Amino acid sequence: MQNNDIEKKLWSAADELRANSKLKSTEYATPVLGLIFLRFADFKFSQAEKQLQGKSTGRKQITKADYQAMGVMSLPDKSRFSKLINLPESADIGKAINDAMKAIETDNEELRDVLPKNYQSFEKRILIELLKILNSIPMDIEGDTFGKIYEYFLGEFAMSEGQKGGEFFTPTSIVKLIVEIIEPYHGRIFDPACGSGGMFVQSAHFVERHKKRPSDEIAVYGQENKTETLRLCKLNLAVHGLSGDIKDGNTYYEDPHHCVGPSTSSGQGKFDFVMANPPFNVDRVDKERIKDDPRFPFGMPKTDNANYLWIQIFASALNQKGRAGFVMANSAGDARASELEIRKKLIESHAVDVIISIGSNFFYTVTLPCTLWFLDKGKKKTDRKDKVLFIDARHIYRQIDRAHRDFTPEQIEFVANIVRLYRGEKPEFMSDSEKMLKEKFSNGKYVDVSGLCKVATLKEIEAQGWSLNPGRYVGVTEKAADDFDFKEKLEELNEELEVLNAEAKELEEKIADNVAKLLDDGE
Q: Can you spell out the DSSP letters for 151-168?
């Protein structure tokens, strides 16, 4: 059975159970993911147990440290999935699962207060069916199948939960593209809006694909404001055999990882990579509380919008060679007034490296298109110092269903290879994108391609009013008449209207200030 079939079969069965239970999606998601984690942990433990017993001479006891050395979590006997599945139906199964989770937390400090322990709120028949469903996963599957199942369930829960779910899950193909472009081979990775930890998981997959062990190459640091989502992140890391320093905190006001400050030299950040999908267009951030924070070196935006606070948080967390990749609202690329001044300073610092337009319908909870921004502090010392690569990827996608799109592995590699050619790096062809690349770049060198990509100089960007909208440089590809989406266009126009309203309010305040000064001077 293919992994995709397994995922769909499991989701269909689990969702049917949810539909017939008294629990809401929000109450159901974490316990189901907890059981997937338990099944996965038991599977890994069983594999390691066989290997260790095969090597054992009989004189030395196998210890927890032996399992940890293999990157496997040691499980107490009562936490074995095999024990739970064989419990008699007369047993208190909810209590048994709760006890299994508590025992794991006792043995593994990093999971303290992370695992769900509310299984007694489930009806017994629901728990028995869930255990049976998870027990049906074939044991001869290869690769990180349980991790993929976990990611699949996260995405499905995000779709079914609406906006709340969207806050903790960034579509995997978007994350993979960010990872492929910033290339986190080795170093410290930070996500200050880490949600369920997808950026960390895909970074680990990237390292594995390049034949290295993630635990030897990368260290992950995250920050998350919502307690339940923070638990999901720690659970996600555990499912994938990763450990990380994930802290609770509101990123606007708190910097528990000390990204910038006395511990870092000359105001530089301390991270090699920053990846994030922050919430767009957030208002009512108390700027008075953060006006002297070193994470905002380019100043406070006057508009009531946090986009340019996030952008500065990402930029300031990077060390002198660091790279960042993050999702941003389209409106940020053309925002005016005080935000334009901040953007100009960022561009003139030579940190902006690549900007990519992404089409609509990639996210589960909003149909709006978005933009991916990539910063590279190390490009100051390269021939890219005064250049920015713009890519319009709005017409590159796979249609999953009427309302959702993603990228194929080939498309992700193709877009990432455009960036590699621009940087003078060798392209990669692990996902068979060679044909796509040769069609546009026949001699294997970067060239501007109308409607797809363009390298602009800082002078050209200045001439465009410091805009970071790829459409201004690449040229807009005309949509076919039958490809017009009224709802999508209306949402785009509404976002633009909100930006213009915010700018109008800022201009009103400036005019009022100037009038007040003139009146004062005239007295």
A: HHHHHHHHHHHTHHHHHH
24-33, 384-393, 427-436, 453-462: segment of lowest average pLDDT: 24-33
Distance, CA of 152 to CA of 64 (rounded, Å): 30
d(CA 13, CA 325): 37
Instruction: Determine phi and psi for 475, rounding to 5 degrees.
Output: 95, 140
Task: Provide the 10 A C-beta neighbour count for residue 181.
Answer: 23
Separation between Cα atoms, residue 252 and residue 45, nearest integer Å? 40
Q: Is the pLDDT of residue 92 over 90?
A: yes
Q: Is 274 helix (H, G, I), strand (E, B) or coil?
A: strand
What value does the mean pLDDT take over residues 186-207? 94
244-248 and 318-328: which strand pairing? unpaired
Distance of CA 272 to the CA centre of its chain: 16
CA–CA separation, 409 and 416 (whole Å): 11
Residue 236 CA, chain-centre distance (Å), reads 12
pLDDT at 482: 46
Query: How many Å apart are CA 235 and CA 231, to the nearest integer?
Result: 6
Contact predicate 307/260, CB 8 Å:
no
Q: pTM to 2 decimals?
A: 0.84
Strands 271-276 vs 318-328: parallel, antiparallel or unpaired: parallel
Q: Is 150 helix (H, G, I), strand (E, B) or coil?
A: helix
Instruction: For the beta carbon of residue 521, count every other beta carbon within 10 angstroms.
Output: 7
Per residue in 362-375, pLDDT (tens digit) is: 886 677 889 999 99
* Cβ within 8 Å of residue 257, ≥6 positions away: 190, 221, 223, 245, 247
Residues 6+ apart with CB under 8 A from 89: 124, 128
**Percent of the chain predicted with pLDDT > 70:** 86
Residue 262, pLDDT above cutoff 90: no
Sheet bearing 453-457, strands edge to edge: 244-248, 218-224, 187-191, 271-276, 318-328, 370-376, 352-358, 387-392, 453-457
3-class SS of residue 247: strand
Contact 104, 111 (CB under 8 A): yes
Cβ–Cβ < 8 Å for 220, 183 = no
Token digits for 492?
């785009």
C-alpha–C-alpha distance, residues 264 and 107, integer Å: 35
> What phi, psi does 468 have (nearest 5°)?
-115, 35
Please tell me the distance from the alpha carbon of residue 484 to that of residue 472, in angstroms, as a whole number: 20
